[in-house]
């Protein structure tokens, strides 16, 4: 499920409103853009666990830091990938390979 924007006539001036149907509207002059849930491709599921996330963020920051310092050259900016996957907790490669490092709560 994702959000779709619908333009609806309204008499308002730049006010944000929450509607009872779960949508959020932003008023501007005489129209309002309403974000409503619509059918579409499912959102990617979280598949990066806590330890994996921390390692990704630290590795990403280290690579970017070394690239900025000129120690390892511009290829170090590849650190943006583990940094982004660490922050979002979603790894597309893990999804393709069926890997999930999130804890399942089973002991």
Quick overview of this protein structure:
This protein has 3 helices and 4 strands. It has 107 residues and is an alpha+beta fold. A 4-stranded antiparallel β-sheet has the order 1-4-3-2, with no helix packed on it.
Task: Give a written overview of the molecule.
By secondary structure, the protein is an alpha+beta fold. It folds into two domains: 2-38, no CATH class; 50-97. It contains three helices and four strands, in the order E-E-E-E-H-H-H. It has helices at residues 50-69, 80-88, 92-97, and strands spanning 2-9, 16-18, 24-28, 31-38. Strands 1-4-3-2 form a four-stranded antiparallel β-sheet, with no helix packed on it. A hairpin with a 5-residue loop joins strand 2 and strand 3. Helix 1 (50-69) runs antiparallel to helix 2. The longest helix is centred in the middle third of the chain and has 20 residues, at 50-69.
Structural key phrases:
107 residues, 2 domains, four-stranded antiparallel sheet, 22% strand, disordered N terminus
Question: What's the helix and strand layout?
Answer:
Layout: E1 2-9, E2 16-18, E3 24-28, E4 31-38, H1 50-69, H2 80-88, H3 92-97
Helix pairs in contact: 1-2
Note poorly predicted spans.
Answer: 1-27
Strand order in the sheet with the most strands:
1-4-3-2
Measure the end-to-end span.
32 Å
Q: What is the general shape?
A: elongated
Per DSSP, the total helix count is: 3
Indicate the multimeric state. single chain
Summarize the amount of helix as a percent range.
Answer: 25-40%
Rg, Å, rounded: 21 Å
Q: How many domains would you count in the coordinates? A: 2
Global structural class = alpha+beta
Order of helices and strands: EEEEHHH
What profile does the largest beta sheet have? Answer: 4 strands, antiparallel
